[in-house]
Amino acid sequence: MEKRLLITGFDPFDGNTANPSWLAVEKLPDRIGDYTLCKLQIPTVFGKSSAFVLEKAEECHPDLILCIGLAAGRDAVTPERIAVNIRDARIPDNEGNQPKGELVVPGGPAAYFATAPVEKMAKAIHEAQIPSAVSNTAGTFVCNDVLYTLLHHFAETSIRAGFIHVPNTPELGNPSLPLAATVDALTAAILACK
Ligand code: PCA
């Protein structure tokens, strides 16, 4: 069956010149398995990033939303299992916001489980010979913020949402994974979202 996927990557942040999450998303073909892809680069800014995703979702009516982000320091491609209702930033975002211990959604539940099939995605990536593991924390910066907001927004709908953190590329830092491997990992993860 024909399906639509909205997939996002972030702009560079924390003084970096590029963000592998967007570099990888950009390289994906427009169709993968049953999915037609709708791609979007989002800013590393609290609130604005998720607003951009929600706005794009109105336009492309996705069945599935996958947001991709950089997790510098990780050496595997990691689908995120959970998002928490906390903004607690170690560094400022791209507009200088640095919330400490604030809620993402005041009155919202403490956490949501991702509705994308995290175990299946991690297994598929691993089977494609790329290091992968399910992660139990997306942190408390902008990536977690986007995932929490999407899961809250689409909680009572059939639209599934997930987040995948990717390592750096060798050019940008270590540990790292070549960009082509990250692209293959995302492709395997999408194919696993039946
Ligand atoms: N990674 C950051 C925000 C943007 C990105 O690519 C994070 O893990 O929150």
- Which geometry do the CA atoms define? globular
Q: Give the neighbour order of strands across the main sheet.
A: 2-3-1-4-8-5
- Structural class, by secondary structure, is alpha/beta
The total of helices stands at 5
How large is the share of residues in beta strands?
Answer: 15-25%
- Specify the helix fraction band: 25-40%
Overview of this structure, please?
The chain is of the alpha/beta class and 194 residues long. The chain is built from 5 helices and 8 strands, in the order E-H-E-E-H-E-E-E-E-H-H-E-H. The protein has helices spanning 20-27, 48-60, 118-127, 142-153, 179-192, and strands at residues 3-10, 31-32, 35-42, 64-70, 78-79, 82-84, 111-113, 160-166. The chain has a 6-stranded mixed beta sheet with strand order 2-3-1-4-8-5, with helices on both faces. A hairpin with a 2-residue loop joins strand 2 and strand 3 (35-42). Helix 2 (48-60) packs across helix 4 (142-153). The longest helix is centred in the last third of the chain and has 14 residues, at 179-192. The radius of gyration is 15 Å and the shape is globular. It starts with a strand and ends with a helix. The mean pLDDT is 98.
